[in-house]
Amino acid sequence: MLFKQQAWLRQKLLVLGSLAVGSLLYLVARVGSLDRLQPICPIEGRFGARGQADFPLRALQFKRGLLHEFRKGNSSKEQVRLHDLVQQLPKAIIIGVRKGGTRALLEMLNLHPAVVKASQEIHFFDNDENYAKGIEWYRKKMPFSYPQQITIEKSPAYFITEEVPERIYKMNSSIKLLIIVREPTTRAISDYTQVLEGKERKNKTYYKFEKLAIDPNTCEVNTKYKAVRTSIYTKHLERWLKYFPIEQFHIVDGDRLITEPLPELQLVEKFLNLPPRISQYNLYFNATRGFYCLRFNIIFNKCLAGSKGRIHPEVDPSVITKLRKFFHPFNQKFYQITGRTLNWP
Fold first, then answer.
1. Is 254 one of the annotated binding-site residues?
2. Which helix (H) or strand (E) covers residue 178, if one does?
3. N or C: which end of the chain has fewer CB within 10 A?
4. How confident is the model over 101-115, as a mean pLDDT?
5. If you write DSSP's letter for every residue of 273-309 in order, what string do you get?
6. For 41-84, how does the pLDDT look when each residue is reduced to its tens digit (9 = 90+)?
C-alpha cells in the first residue's frame, strides 16, 4: 500500500513539474528573446503621429503572437478593432535586386519588433493588372500591424521595371527604398541557376550560361540577356533618381549579409530610424545549411527555404573575367552615385 502511495505521489510531482516548466517556457516565448529582457526601450518618435514615441518595443515583441494569429486568418473585425490593428501602406520597400538577397533581408529585418513584413511579393507597382486595382487593394494586401510599427514589402522586379519609380512616387514621395546588391557576375550566375532549376523540374533543356551571357557573333557580353542587364545596377538606379533623391536609398551589401549579417542589419536599422534591437543573439550560423538562421526567442528559430543558396554550375573562367571587366565601369559609377564602395573585383 505504501509503495502504491509513493508511486502515485511521484507521478503527481512529475505532472506538476512538467506544467511548471511548460508555463515558464511559454512566458519566456511570449516576452521575447533573452537579450530582450532588459529595460524597456521606447521607439524614437520618428515614424509619424499617434504617439508612437511612447510605445515600448517590448510590448510590441510581446504582442507578436497575436499578430501571428491574425496573419493566419484567425481574427474577426471586432478583434481587429479592439486591438487597434491596421493595415498600413509600407513606409519602406525592398525594391531589388533579384537574386541579391531580398528574401533574406526581409526576414532578418522582421526580427525587429517594430517591423512587420508582407510575407508574399505583391507585385503591385510592376504589374499593370494589379496596379489598375488601386491603392486600396494594395493596402489590403498588407499584414495587420500596430500603428507604431512600420510595414515593409519586397518585390525585386520593382528595381528594373520602367514604370515603377513614378508609381511609387505618386503613392509616397518620401518613402525609404532599400536595394540589396551582390557582385554583378555572381548575381547573374545565381539568376541563371534559378531559371535552370525551373527548366530541369519541367524536364526542359536550357542553354549553358556561357552561351547566353556571350554573344556568339561578336564574342562580347550579351547585354540583351536579362541576367546581365539586371546586374548593370547604375542604369536602373539612374531611372529612380529622376523621382527620388539618393538620400532616400540605402544600399545593402548582399555578399556581406551572407557572411556577416549583423553590421549590415544595424546600418539598415539606422537608415529606417529604428532603435537598435537586432543583436548577435538573433543570428546563428547553421553549418549544415552554410547560412545564418534567425532566432526570435529561445523556442522559435527559422532558416530560409532550402531553395536559397543553390549550388552554381561551373562557368568558364574566361567568361567570368570578361563579365567582370564589362561590369567594372558600371560598378565604379554605382559607387560614386551611392557613396558606398563595395569590394567587387
1. no
2. strand 176-181
3. N
4. 96
5. TPPP---GGGEEEETTTTEEEEESSSS-EE---TTTT
6. 333 334 443 334 444 565 555 455 555 555 555 555 555 555 68
The secondary structure of 46-113, three-state, reads: CCCCCCHHHCEHHHHHHCHHHHHHHHCCCCCHHHHHHCCCEECCCCEEEEECCCCCHHHHHHHHCCCC
The count of other CB atoms within 10 Å of the CB of residue 292 is 21
Q: How far, in Å, CA of 271 to CA of 281, rounded?
A: 21
> Among 184, 181, 180, 179, which Cα is nearest to 246's?
179
User: How many other C-beta atoms are found inside a 10 Å radius of the C-beta of residue 61?
Assistant: 20
99 part of the active site: yes
Q: Check 91, 99, 117, 154 and give the catalytic one.
A: 99
Q: What is the helix (H) or strand (E) element at residue 179, kind and residue range? A: strand 176-181
Residue 312 is assigned to a ligand binding site: yes
**What global pTM score does this model have?**
0.80
d(CA 132, CA 135): 9
Comparing 100-114, 146-160, 233-247, 289-303, the range with the smallest average pLDDT is: 289-303
Annotated binding-site residue? 302: no
Rounded to 10 deg, the angle between the 233-240 and 317-338 helix axes is: 30
